[in-house]
Amino acid sequence: MSGVEGYMYPNEITLYWSVLIVLYPYITGLVAGAFILASLERIFNVEAVKPTYRLALLTALSFLIVAPLPLQLHLGHPERSPEMYFTPHATSAMAMFGFVYLWYLMAVLVFEIWLDYRKDIVLLSQSTTGLKRILYRIMTLGSSNISPRSLAIDRKVGWIVTLVGIPSAFILHGYVGFIFGSLKSNPWWDSPLMPVVFIFSAMVSGIAAVLLLYMLTAKLRNQPIDMPCVDTVAMYLFYIFILDFSLEMLDLIHRIYEADESFRSLNFMVHTKLYFSQIVLQLCIGTLVPILLLAIVQVTHLSATIRKRIYVLSGCLVQVGVFAMRWNVVIGGQLFSKSFLGYTTYKVGLVTREGLLVAIFLSILPLAILSGLLKLLPPWPKDEQNLVEAAATHTP
Amino acid sequence: MKIDRRHFLVMLPAAAIAWKYLLAGTPEASPNYTMTDHWWSMLIDIPKCIGCGNCVRACAVENDVPDGHFRTWVERYLVTDWHMENPEVVSPDGGKEGFSAAPAEENGKYFFVPKLCNHCADSPCTQVCPVGATFIAPDGVVLVDQTYCLGCAYCVQACPYGCRYIHPEKRVADKCTLCYHRITKGLKPACVENCPTGARQLVDLKDPYDPIHAFLKTHYVQVLKPQMATGAKVFYNEMDGSVR
């Protein structure tokens, strides 16, 4: 049979989890990572990363809005998905998706953004006209009190929400790792380290994404890049990356040393079908090179221009590496037979429901949503002063 | 229209015939079937399997199994002296059309292994279903409610034996039901019914008179991948250690 080497159980020849299921953990990872970066400023008082705080929250929201779409498109019967809310199966990790998602979206992210932006929204509802004014008025939810006492309460509540948000972000993405790691049927996935590796790689990809977006938006707005900010973000990225890499290596060394019944099969797969995506993209280009680049910045005194270039390059390579990691987990886990006697091939369709074009569209969609959110809720600190002035001139 | 007693008596047999005609279109009820009285499983007697593929064909016809997907299939193993851990396994089209003659092998042995859902008592597939669309019936059969299944394929991933697939037209999970529509009426599954050598036997562990009890006491019987601890209920007689 074409695309099959050795022996696959006959029902294994077709892969049921496609590139869209690769996209799902990648997107939720970006959400969790961006939120963790935002919490650095809020909870851990890392003042240097403040310029990225709001951008990180909006990035997280943009990607979180898109997160369920690949799952919906993948389902055989998407119209039945509300059943996961109405009749969730208590023993199923997947059944928790809806609840974890809603909790994170509504109780954490939207609430925190609203609290943080409330003053801006009230000022915008006073300074704008026409439809925009109506929109911002609705967004105030009837709360237009921006007295210092009221804003102090916002900050306190926001702090608590962020505090709750950190474990929630861990749950959101750790749970995605658990979906894979808890399947004893599949030795490629079956590992208690899986949720932890997912969380750390999520932080790496999310922080790198916000770093890239911050530099890109600054460039587009012709604003100078706050170097202490990007240096600090890059430093956190480096240290978390080291932890992530160590965990992944621990998993790998454990597998090699233990060499259980599945090892020969998995080892063969890594050296053949997954060689490019695992060894070349994930390990070398997506992990070792960016770690090395970020390490160079930590131990040398390079000029701001070179540092910026290194951050952009590392950030892009991190995205490649983390996406490759998700690919290797999801697709790699289905390429070998559970009989350990053979391998199949995954062919990505182009214009099918779970094809490449849909995957590309879903990857771009969060960026389109983000650009809309940036217009609606500008995260730039300088805008605040302009807002106060504009509101003062409009308010009778 | 007025109906007198005479007319009524004449129409009564006609009404009875009409009623009987209507009933003929409805499925036969299973009045004597009580789920909790049974605990179904299957016995596969490996030395008896000749790899004819009758079971696979019968299953496909009985259950309208789509091409390229299998509720049951047959594998042919070749285990040589030096490669006990790496047997050569083939199952062309699930063994539906049988197997071509195998080349002679002096240093090894050939045998056939029929496979199907193991109807595990602690089944990983039912554990992971997000809406409980797949479940273990009180009689031990693992079933899928196809009107409820989301088609997420998590159960397909969770099955260690490769017994599940997503039905290409219905877009829901599909698998062996032990021909539930037959066994609840006192019939045998299609694969058992059509096996010419009796290599497949339907087993009711709750039936004290089922010959399985004597068989299990007197034979060396295994289940597939016992290390998975799924409570698999398809028993294999004289199964080689290389089978996976």
Structural features:
heterodimer, A: mainly alpha, Formate dehydrogenase/DMSO reductase fold, two-stranded antiparallel ribbon, 15 helices, globular, B: 244 residues, alpha+beta, Alpha-Beta Plaits, 4-stranded mixed sheet, 11 strands
What does this 3D model show about the protein?
The complex is a heterodimer of chains A (396) and B (244). By secondary structure, chain A is mainly alpha-helical. Chain A is 72% helix and 1% strand. A two-stranded antiparallel ribbon of chain A has the order 1-2. By secondary structure, chain B is an alpha+beta fold. Chain B has one domain: Alpha-Beta Plaits, CATH 3.30.70. In chain B, strands 9-1-11-10 form a four-stranded mixed sheet, with no helix packed on it. A three-stranded antiparallel sheet of chain B has the order 3-2-4, with helices on one face. A two-stranded antiparallel ribbon of chain B has the order 5-6. Classes of the chains: A mainly alpha (396), B alpha+beta (244).
Please give the number of β-strands of chain B. Answer: 11
Spatial arrangement of strands, main beta sheet of chain A: 1-2
CATH fold category name of chain A:
Formate dehydrogenase/DMSO reductase fold
Radius of gyration of chain A: 23 Å
Class of secondary structure makeup of chain A: mainly alpha
- Whole-number average pLDDT of chain B? 92
> What coarse outline of chain B follows from CA principal-axis ratios?
elongated
Residue share in helix of chain A: over 70%
* CATH class division of chain A: Mainly Alpha
Can you count the helices of chain A?
15
Q: Gyration radius of chain B, to the nearest Å?
A: 22 Å
Protein chain pair with the most extensive contact, residues per chain = A-B, 41 and 45 residues
Low-confidence spans of chain A: none
At CATH's second level, what is the architecture of chain B? 2-Layer Sandwich
Kindly report the spatial arrangement of strands forming the biggest sheet of chain B.
9-1-11-10
Largest sheet of chain B: 4 strands, mixed
CATH class of chain B: Alpha Beta
- Give the helix proportion of chain B (percent range): 10-25%
